[in-house]
Specification:
Elements (H helix, E strand, L loop, with lengths): L7 H18 L10 H17 L4
Length: 56
């Protein structure tokens, strides 16, 4: 399996999602109905998808 580095936009999107998950874990974003663990998992999946797909 060949992995490639994610583009800068994919990295920034996953970073923003991870920061939202961190803020939800700290209780600052109580209006988000998902648990912070799932939000962080989505951020990791976006980053992993960016590494697996070429040209993403």
């Amino acid at each position: 399996m060949n992995l490639s580095a994610p583009t800068q936009i994919v990295f920034i999107i996953s970073l923003v999602i991870a920061i939202i998950g961190l803020l939800a874990a700290l209780g600052l974003l109580a209006f988000i109905p998902l648990a912070s663990v799932w939000i962080m998992l989505i951020a990791y999946a976006v980053l992993a998808g960016g590494c697996l797909m070429r040209g993403a």
